[in-house]
Design brief:
- The complex is a heterodimer of chains A (374) and B (336).
- Chain A has 374 residues and is an alpha/beta fold.
- Chain A has a 9-stranded mixed sheet with strand order 3-4-5-2-1-6-7-9-8, with helices on both faces.
- The longest helix of chain A is centred in the N-terminal third of the chain and has 28 residues.
- In chain B, 41% of the residues are buried.
- The two termini of chain B are 14 Å apart.
- In chain B, the strands form 3 sheets. Chain B has a 5-stranded mixed sheet with strand order 3-2-1-12-13, with helices on one face.
- In chain B, helix 1 packs across helix 6, helix 1 runs parallel beside helix 9 and helix 8 crosses helix 9.
- Classes of the chains: A alpha/beta (374), B alpha/beta (336).
- Chains A and B meet through helix 1, helix 10 and helix 14 of A and helix 5, helix 7 and helix 8 of B.
- Chain A: Keywords: Methyltransferase, S-adenosyl-L-methionine, Transferase.
- Chain A: Belongs to the methyltransferase superfamily. LCMT family.
- Chain A: It catalyses: [phosphatase 2A protein]-C-terminal L-leucine + S-adenosyl-L-methionine = [phosphatase 2A protein]-C-terminal L-leucine methyl ester + S-adenosyl-L-homocysteine.
- Chain A: This is Leucine carboxyl methyltransferase 1.
- Chain A: It is an enzyme of class 2 (transferase).
């Protein structure tokens, strides 16, 4: 998916939300002349995005497109780090440098995402005193484990799950780069590390290759790596659920709610997708065979909250990224705004209003997880 | 399919063309003709002239001079007949385009819809030719090419993106370095410094990329006196011309862009009155319909990059101005 690279917005070290590709003109070079015409209706776009079923090869192609968003996200993240938006000494070991600059609004968007999600993670770690687990679903090349270790904030165990192909690549990077493998060894105790082509298991860090659409298989693999369902568990999904059908993501959410008596779920992805911006994003992505199968649930902040509450979670919140941006420590926001001059605010605001952070909790132990908020 | 990496010979040719532009721009000094002489054009109302049924001579085809018209005219004159005065007086239109931002295929579409530039089809491009879009090099060299071909009928005004700071962050510098060399970018930077900041049409319509001023009392003469061949300063009239935006309420406010100001209808009114102008045309802000009329018709925005950044879904537009009445005639188009 070479065309996917360098053009995407708001992607994390994990999955990218694939909406952003192709800043002006790239696709037009391939389309060749011709009539402006109008754009197809919004309803048709959304229906097309959610269309199923796909043939086996179609599914493969769709999955491959989703896997492609992993690199996009990491490249963008690495670029933002290189300009100075935040520190991440590990991302460079997972992904190449960007071929061209990313626009300031993209960099600011990633900054907001990384710091918004991080705020909630830190709050959870604090409430549980790190006596907890983190399960990062669709983690891609995320570097959170290493950064938490640097801050002495590791949970009892940190799990990452992604497609086997992605996990294999991550394992390869870890094995071949001492700055990545050393911290894992350091935090490991007891018998030797278990490591094969699609999984890695150590005392504090575990990598699992699995398909998130099959939760029983997922659970089995996690339990093989000593997942303790009785520990308070934080599950994170950044730009993951949107690539599954609403039914599939509902199943995953239900599985998480029913498996962990004390848990929190953080979801970062698109929102407010029924407008023109949403329509354009869906079409841009479809041209790259990337299907936002779950875009229906990204209709609004309400639909995002609802899908959490309907699937076993007790409390739910959802706010758009413009709001998140306003809640971040403003001294640091001023600092990053000084890194690159933003020539017009509309592009940034429009972008941010179409992404959200949602979080939900269930708390049989009354740890006060429901109080976690910005 | 555009060749994005022309062979070395082409590159060298373009390089030489750029050098020509630098020299040419060095001789160009900003704006309007002598505004104190009463324009004959102002006293004419060509639109309301009628051609009587009995007239059987050549007529302009949609106001355009064509080869057929010329052949007919020469034959008519051979027979010692007179061309109807409406055709004799007919002034051509000028097309004003706003930001194009490296959207080369959309620029091609403008030429397809509105005709290639020529002496009878003059154009003014109101800044922001580069950055953000992926084909800034193709856009700017095309525009420079037409400037060389029709120097008196093809005009380029400077936008806030014809500056080093913007080019460094928003893509043009990167694109030039990738397709050519750092030296080529330095040449573009130099040429951009000579682009004029404003243009006045028939002493009545002032065109600039951004807008009006942070202070009252600015005259056309003040604008002419600006020493523009530099990077714009952080404030002052040169900065305002490239960066300011209109606002609905009277007075001035701090700009949400963080540089220059926002100016209200009263500022526009008093500037126009002081300088005996009818209205201003500016660009700089994306508009869903490709254009916007504000300040009671006195501040027009035209923006020609449709679906800006593949994100906004906006239309683009351009303006036809006819010498006879100078009211803006808007034409919209969508992204290709």
């Amino acid at each position: 998916m070479d065309e996917a690279s360098d053009q995407s917005p708001l992607r994390s070290g994990g999955r990218s939300c694939g909406g952003w590709p192709m800043r002006s003109g790239e696709r037009r070079g391939q389309r060749g002349g011709g009539g402006s015409g109008g754009r197809p209706s919004l309803a048709r776009s959304m229906a097309a995005a959610a269309r199923e079923p796909l043939s086996a090869s179609g599914l493969d192609e769709a999955d491959e497109a989703v896997r492609g968003t992993c690199e996009d996200a990491s490249v963008c993240k690495r670029f933002a780090v290189s300009v100075g938006y935040w520190k991440d000494p590990y991302i460079q070991y997972f992904v190449r440098q960007a071929k061209e600059r990313k626009a300031p609004e993209i960099n600011r968007g990633y900054y907001a995402r990384v710091h918004g999600v991080s705020y909630l993670i830190q709050a959870f770690l604090k409430k549980t005193d790190c006596n907890c687990q983190i399960v990062n679903l669709g983690a891609g090349m995320d570097t959170l484990f290493w950064r938490l270790k640097d801050e002495n904030l590791l949970p009892r165990k940190y799990f990452e799950v992604d497609f086997p192909m992605i996990v294999a690549r991550k394992i390869h990077n870890i094995k071949s780069k001492p700055p990545l493998s050393k911290p894992i060894m350091e935090s490991h105790s007891g018998d030797s590390l278990l490591i094969d082509s699609h999984s890695l298991d150590s005392s504090r860090y575990s990598l699992v290759g699995a398909d998130l659409r099959f939760s029983s298989d997922l659970e089995e693999k996690l339990k093989k790596h000593n997942l303790d369902t009785h520990l308070p568990t934080l599950l994170i999904a950044e730009c993951v659920l949107v690539y599954m059908t609403p039914q599939q993501s509902a199943n995953l959410l239900k599985w998480a709610a029913s498996t962990f008596p004390v848990a929190m779920f953080i979801n970062y992805e698109q929102v407010n997708m029924t407008d023109r911006f949403g329509q354009i994003m869906i079409e841009n992505l479809q041209r790259r065979q990337c299907n936002l199968a779950g875009v229906e649930v990204c209709r609004s902040l309400d639909s995002q909250k609802e899908r959490l509450l309907l699937n076993g979670w007790e409390t739910a919140h959802a706010i758009d990224m413009m709001k998140v941006y306003s809640f971040l420590p403003q001294a640091d926001v001023k600092r990053i705004e000084g890194l690159e001059f933003l020539d017009e605010k509309e592009l940034f605001e429009q972008l941010m209003q179409h992404y959200c952070i949602c979080w939900a909790s269930k708390d049989n132990s009354n740890l006060g997880l429901a109080n976690i908020t910005f | 399919v555009v060749k994005v990496r022309p062979n070395d010979k082409d590159a060298k040719l373009k390089y030489q063309e750029c050098h020509k532009i630098v020299k040419q721009k060095a001789f160009e000094r900003a704006i309007a003709s002598d505004e104190h002489k009463r324009s004959v054009v102002d006293s004419l109302d060509i639109e309301s002239m009628t051609i009587e049924d009995e007239y059987s001579g050549p007529k302009l085809d949609g106001g355009k001079v064509t080869l057929d018209f010329m052949k007919e005219l020469m034959q008519w004159y051979k027979e010692q007949k007179k061309l109807h005065r409406k055709c004799a007086y007919q002034t051509e239109k000028v097309t004003v385009c706003g930001d194009t931002h490296g959207q080369y295929y959309d620029l091609l579409n403008i030429f397809e819809l509105n005709g290639l530039p020529s002496e009878s089809n003059p154009y003014i491009f109101n800044g922001d030719f580069v950055d953000r879009g992926s084909f800034s090099v193709e856009v700017i060299l095309t525009l420079f090419g037409f400037k060389l071909l029709y120097p008196d009928h093809f005009h380029l005004l400077r936008g806030n993106h014809e500056t080093d700071n913007m080019n460094q962050i928003y893509g043009f510098e990167g694109e030039v370095k990738a397709k050519y060399t750092a030296q080529m970018f330095a040449l573009f930077s130099e040429v951009f410094e000579w682009l004029p900041l404003a243009q006045c049409i028939n002493g009545k319509v002032l065109i600039m990329h951004g807008g009006l001023f942070s202070e009252d009392g600015v005259t056309l003469d003040d604008i002419r006196k600006i020493e523009r061949n530099r990077q714009p300063p952080d404030s002052g009239p040169m900065c305002d011309l490239l960066w300011s935006d209109p606002q609905p309420q009277n007075g001035r406010s701090v700009s949400k862009r963080g540089v220059s100001c926002q100016f209200g209808p009263d500022v526009t009114k008093s500037f126009l009155e002081r300088n005996r102008l009818d209205y201003i045309i500016r660009s700089h802000e994306v508009k869903p319909e490709g254009y916007e009329v504000a300040h009671d018709g006195k501040c027009v925005t035209v923006f020609s990059a449709p679906n800006y950044c593949d994100q906004m879904g906006n239309k683009g537009s351009y303006i036809h101005l006819r010498g006879s009445d100078l009211r803006p005639d808007f034409h919209q188009f969508t992204a290709v």
